[in-house]
Amino acid sequence: MNTFNDEKIVDLQQEQEQEQEQEQEQEQAQALLPFHYRCKVSYNGTHYQGWQIQSGSPLGEAKTIQGEINSALSKLCQEREVYTLGASRTDAGVHSLGQIFRASIPLDLPISAMTKGLNSFLPPEIRILSAEKCDRGFHPRYAAKWKEYVYLFTIDRSDENLLASPFVHNLVAAYPYAYESIKLQAMMDATKLFVGHHDFVNFYCEGSAFKSTKREILRTEMAKVTAPLSSCLLVPAAECWMIRVIGRGFLKQMIRLIVGAIWNVGRGRVALVEIANALGGARAGSDPKLGVVAPACGLYLKQIGFSEFADGAKFSA
Fold first, then answer.
1. Active-site residue identified among 91, 108, 156, 287
2. 189 is catalytic
């Protein structure tokens, strides 16, 4: 009997039940909307307070990706009520290459209206990539089997502390420490330690409801980026690196804390054994984190899988 897996299943069921209660009122309103679409959206999250609408925020109505999409959908549907539900709640400043959401609307629109038409009402940093009709029962968050995130950062090997071009400072993070003694192999070794079932109690920030800090990471990799981004937009002395994380679910700011811990391994402040101990929930104290919360600008939701993950895809940077 696998006690960890049994606990994980129960915990995830409890989380889903809690979220279902919170969404009940919205679902009741959505029941009156007869047409449903599964959409894929890419966005630059720099100037947005994350994906999810935050009408209850103490700062007032925050500008969010979901809010912009809802506004555009309402215009497309002649100012009628609409409803959207995203697969992932990306944080403020985080980007997406493949967020999935369900749109429920009062009109039976052609697919071209849900792509070209919707894009015509959206700001240029938000683009609908594709759309298809779906059943009302499609719940993007619960249907998702895994999610892939990538984190981009530069390492400046000059003596000028340029870090990155001013053209990409909101799209790529900068390694914030001295490069001379950076331990890249240790960082890559540390990245691999996160694969498997672990307790991520030391790798999250408060701010979202959940019943368990246990999560399963399916694959992680760290590699140097060789695409044109690193040669034409970064300063000549800067290298661009990517940390890739694929998992079944994530806690708030979990990946950014993982990156912060890996950065500290690179500077020799954290040993691999400390990473292993932290993943067992062994650390304690007032500040049990192994690193800073890495800047949001480097994080991308790359894709969401709705079938079981097949660990065999070649890593491409």
1. 91
2. no
